[in-house]
User: What shape does this take?
Amino acid sequence: MTMNIRKCTLEDLGNLQEISHETFNDTFKHQNSRENMKAYLERAFNLKQLEKEICNPASEFFFVYFNNEIAGYLKVNTNDAQSEEMGNESLEVERIYIKSKFQKLGLGKYLLNKAMAIAMERKKKKIWLGVWEKNENAIAFYKKMGFVRTGAHSFYMGEEEQIDFIMTKTLI
Assistant: This one.
């Protein structure tokens, strides 16, 4: 059982799109309408959008591999790439997406530890993320990892407004 991480490049856009669609759909399709899911997936994970994100120097993507198979990915943001105004002393974990067949193997913790290492390397004082208020498993995981709820913001799934809890962990 081996885990490793590799930074994504433009050559990875197809795989990134495929994993984004698969993981987001598997996680949220049961709680959202087909129309809203379709609209969100087309807007957030089209190749042009993913290319824009991967080319942003304040964002980084990392694939996680389990036994040499891509199992998911991490996206982190700093500075003006953060989805909320959190300042230059913060790092955002925008996505930790793990394919369903690889869940419960420690990959989420592995990726979150990678994000914290990046934050500490860059001397960030805190790391934060947004998590859907109805994603109880993820909320419990982040609490276990030392994150606390510090706020909330709106997230739009198609036309439907939903609430993400903002959870933060102080590093320094």
Summary: Residues 3-124 form a domain with the Aminopeptidase fold (CATH 3.40.630.30). Helices lie at 13-28, 34-44, 47-55, 107-121, 136-144. The CA atoms of residues 23 and 100 lie 7 Å apart.
